[in-house]
Design a protein that fits this description.
The structure is a homotetramer of 270-residue chains.
Chain A lengths: L2 H4 L16 E8 L2 H7 L8 H17 L3 E7 L2 E6 L10 H18 L1 H5 L11 E8 L2 H30 L5 H8 L4 H12 L8 H5 L1 E17 L5 E16 L7 H5 L10
Antiparallel strand pairs in A: 1-3, 1-4, 2-3, 2-5, 5-6
Chain lengths: 270, 270, 270, 270
């Protein structure tokens, strides 16, 4: 077969290797999720089942791509951070981002029923788009995650007040929008507290802080069956260490989180 | 909130706009599909349900991204061709490939049951990786598709003989591999014919030629209910034109296909 | 010597291969040439010596890099077009543009005296910056050159009127600028003709059209000294074909130039 | 003029912005300098005039592009390091490398006579090609410079022994090559010392270590003429600080150089 005659087309592929010694961030965003949440009647302002499914799908990505050291998600977006020395897919940007987007999307459909049950079937296959961004220093990476968490806070405070005004205050969405125009964070906190007796600070951390996934070592105690030299069997208790993806809903902007988890980042001067 | 302080990290994103006036090809490949097909007990050498699911998922991609003018798939891969003048996502490579990978993957899980029924459940979420390649001329693009179809032919002929030797000839896989070492296409055809009375030419086209998806205009005849001026209603028959994704299993290497579908490609000298 | 310990830094280089089957254009622009022309007292609006030196330097580039099929220059810029199938420097963008920039700049200083003589010495080493742009089709490439030539026309007409108003009309530069604000090409032609009796159409083509350099085959007749078998010598006249860089100052926007030189461009559908 | 019709071609330019917060290194290499040194009869193994000219040209580049914090050269190559926070040319790789290549090349021709005098005229315009490499950390950058200096050492030791064997030992170049095959650094030192009484350690540092250019602040004492209130004039002595490019021929592999010049590099964690 004249295979060779066409094979020159391979040379049109270009190299998109990510610069070495930089953190590789892949961020996914839901496509047309405004419409998607409407059609699936998601609770407003936050749907805990949806947040759980997002987090479950992100865990599925981390378990497939072990060089991801931390992931952060909020609303319909999730960011995955590959360690700076990663050599997965030879650091080819296209491979990294499509693999993440694909694994996340298939997981989202696969685990849907676990979170939404039989009553709310998935109506059509949703999609996420992605991008790759490189960060050369620990400072830059922390600032990236802080940027996303600050965004989470700003949006969640707004949405909380907005939907409270609509759902409990009886305003139309247009009226609620008008009411909030130009208000600062303090104003919004005040509306919640004085008009609806809601203390924003006591809202669930998953909503205020988003979800941070990291690897954690756990000691597991298992009982194993051991053969003795005399051919008898004996049960022994064994302790072994296993890495597991663990979810946190804490502040990542301050230094405390990073001090408590010194293994996530690598030294800058390497 | 100190949002602005972190927002500088956006400047680390780089522009990956695809060169104008080139066809943009996104090719997806199944990840670890050897293991996946084993675990889901796919029929050998080809599983029609799986090919149907691949094709269904590809159609879902085309319906979401209308600038795709042709798609070609075989085995666990699928290529999608955006028209050279497309401005989807401002031609940003990362967005195009992640959207395609995501939509394909979520569709693959979503439509699984349509093809595999209740008896063969999906065991875990599969994934596909992708890449983007640009082709400046019609000749280059046709040669790309010819390359994939020639690859389909070479692999399918090999797999057909290999599994016939194993399934009907009683050879082990190692023996079948040894037997085929160094054989040419003619030798393989001869083994099939003289030893198993199989004429490769009469094998299904979907296996020998893969699947080509293109848009086709169809005239649809629908019956509509029309209100007359006197307030009565009357049924009228209306003919309207609709674009639909249509599957073909034909040769795309020769010129005939392209002559029969002159609208797929745009003029080179534009 | 611990050479190997450091050699990992080579892996930080990234591949910048230009997409195959596209014309590669390298355009150079003079840096701070406004100041440079002032300090070297260039004639206004055009200095023929400077244009000659630009053209001479461009020829030096073409003679060094034979895959350049056409070059076009005007004012303090020059564009060099590599043929679409070129494999010079493995099509690495960085190598192509730096080599062109370097060869042009060293030639500019080297040949300065040929054009400016001993009286006007070069005061300091000038510099040019460059860029690479790819064009997939003949139409795109012709439109690129047309764009530059249209720019040449617009600028030269403006500068011609502007400096005529200043030099012959006695206006200050500020007054000339004010006078030309909002004028169209026809207005400018009219000012030249009615106030200064200058017919712009008869201005030198090198100014109106810029300089186009292409390769041309010439038959050369040379007299060679040949040794005869009897050890005597005899002069013989030999005709041989040689490629030479030839300058044109003609229109490249219309089709005529391309029809007269069919060998410059390659077929689109290759 | 139909300028707008063609202007779409500008959109074919692609963005090549260098990743933020990384050192940008532009390295130049002489093209065909083997032939160039032969034709200009450079002294072997090192021509001090040529090294001086390289250094002078590099200084000219640094003075034009003030964001270059350090430059390192040896043989016919020179590397220029832009500070990691530089925003010159908006960090566009093509602009940075072509400007460096151009300024260096024009300077090389411009200052030729200063180093080679009237007796050895430049025969033709030489050229240099360049590339851009990014380094995210101080460690990476130091290792890059160490890599080049280690290369300088290895090559200079080899060349010193090689040409000593030829010039003083009477060997042909082929014999000298053969003699050195497989020898280690210690062997080469031994040949120099025992056969020619040359202690390599006392060779000039410029040859063993190459040339490092950095900015240094100098206090300059100048006498200025000052007008007094009573309209008289008075001479005053003023001390002012000026940045100047200073050449060093020292080790940059160890930490001492960096400790002595703490201002060259910026903090990693920025």
């Amino acid at each position: 077969m004249a295979k060779s005659k066409f094979e020159y087309v391979r040379n049109f592929e270009t190299d998109d290797t990510c610069l070495r010694n930089c953190y590789i961030v892949v961020r996914l965003d839901g496509r047309n999720f405004h419409k998607f949440t409407e059609q699936h009647k998601f609770a407003k302002p936050n749907d805990n089942r949806a947040l759980g499914l997002m987090s479950r799908s992100a865990r599925s990505v981390m378990e497939e791509l072990e060089d991801i050291v931390i992931a952060y998600g909020q609303s319909d977006e999730f960011s995955f951070v590959f360690k700076r020395t990663s050599t997965w897919f030879k650091r080819r940007a296209s491979k990294l981002m499509t693999h993440v987007a694909s694994q996340f999307s298939s997981s989202f459909v696969f685990y849907w029923k676990e979170f939404f049950g039989e009553d709310l079937p998935l109506l059509y296959p949703p999609s996420f788009d992605g991008r790759v961004v490189l960060y050369p220093s620990n400072r830059n990476l922390k600032d990236y995650l802080s940027w996303r968490q600050a965004d989470c806070h700003v949006n969640n405070l707004y949405n909380t007040v907005f939907w409270t005004l609509v759902q409990k205050g009886g305003l139309t969405t247009a009226q609620a929008e008008e009411r909030l125009k130009g208000t600062l964070a303090a104003d919004k906190n005040e509306i919640l507290f004085s008009e609806f007796n809601i203390n924003y600070n006591t809202e669930p951390a998953v909503l205020k802080k988003g979800t941070t996934l990291i690897w954690e070592k756990r000691d597991e105690t298992v009982t194993k069956c051991m053969k003795l030299p005399n051919a008898e069997e004996k049960e022994v208790v064994v302790t072994r260490s296993r890495r597991r993806v663990q979810a946190h809903h804490c502040d990542v902007i301050g230094e405390q989180f990073w001090e408590e988890h010194p293994d996530i980042l690598e030294d800058d001067n390497c």
